[in-house]
Amino acid sequence: MAYTNSPLVSYTKLSPNHSGQRTHGIDRITPHCVVGQCTVQTLGDIFAPTSRQASCNYGIGKDGKVGMYVEEKNRSWCTSSNANDQRAVTIECASDTTEPYAFKDVVYQTLIKLCVDICKRNGKTKLLWLGDKEKTLNYSPKSDEMVITVHRWFANKSCPGNWLYVRLGDLAAKVTAQLGSSAPAPAAPSTGKNLYRVRKSWSDAKSQKGAFSVLENAKKCADANPGHSVFDANGTNVYPQKTSAPAVSSGVPFLVQVSITDLNIRKGPGTNYARTQYIPAGVYTIMEVKSGKGSTAGWGRLKSGAGWISLDYARRI
After folding, report:
1. CB atoms within 10 A of CB 38
2. Which H, E and C letters describe 60-96, residue by residue?
3. 43: containing domain
């Protein structure tokens, strides 16, 4: 097909960080949170160096302006998933720097307009939010359907942040309505508030200790009630992050295969340690294993001494 770019773009700074022509037609939109109230010019500077090894198709600045960094015909490097980026238009949106990574209203309204434009130019009359990773990734969109995916499904990240995550049903409905189609029902009913519920599990409503509009208050409640967790409006566990404690350094050294191209190397075993660089795809020797924040399978210390990687994204061989 002949790809086009959005006429909403007011600033262009093309990044060298992309894979060239897509290998799959566009049938997904993946919105992200920048974790910074930045401008489209700042985003262009962020994605300009090759050392960054990251990019997006579009960005929305804090003032609602739209920037383009990778043309729609090309695959950006944005969601830690080659398969997703090959078929998704990726959009970085200016946001607050702390949970729930809220957007300014002008940014959210521009996101709606940009999604409408993307759908129209790609022959889509509906934008769908299915609200579930497995359901979405196993769904084959009809020729007139566009599907929303999120970064947190492919990496240990909270992106696009809980502020936007609970609004994705609303985003899909508003875009679909502007496209002239019947809006699909949101994945979870809106309560008028972004409530965080404290329960033993999402399905066990009877165990609920409370519902809070402020995440920090929900966290305090969960801490005071052992065995309870915080769930957002879509039933996603947002606190504490469920981890399985791996046996520390058992069976080491061993080899792992890293297949993704943007796995972080960190200075210590956890996402609370600084990132030093991306590790190239390949086979590596793990000398030590520790549990830590942001990984369910644990963190592996590289034999090279470069640092630690999440074993969630490495296959033991």
Report:
1. 18
2. ECCCCCEEECCCCCEEECCCCCHHHHHHEEEEEECEC
3. 9-178
Write the pLDDT tens digit of every residue in 148-201: 999 999 988 889 998 999 899 999 999 999 998 754 444 443 344 568 888 877
Same domain, residue pair 123 and 202: no
Q: Is the pLDDT of residue 85 over 60?
A: yes
Q: Is residue 77 part of a domain?
A: yes
269 preceded by a cis bond (ω within 30 of 0)? no
What's the chain's Rg over C-alpha atoms?
A: 20
Residues 230 and 265 in one domain: no
Please indicate, yes or no, if residue 136 is contained in any of the structural domains.
yes
219 three-state secondary structure? helix
Long-range contacts of 98-102 (CB under 8 A, 24+ apart): 99/158, 99/161, 99/162, 99/215, 100/161, 100/162, 100/163, 100/194, 100/215, 101/33, 101/35, 101/158, 101/159, 101/160, 101/161, 101/162, 101/163, 101/164, 102/161, 102/163
Asked if 159 and 168 count as a contact pair (C-beta separation under 8 A), the reply is: no
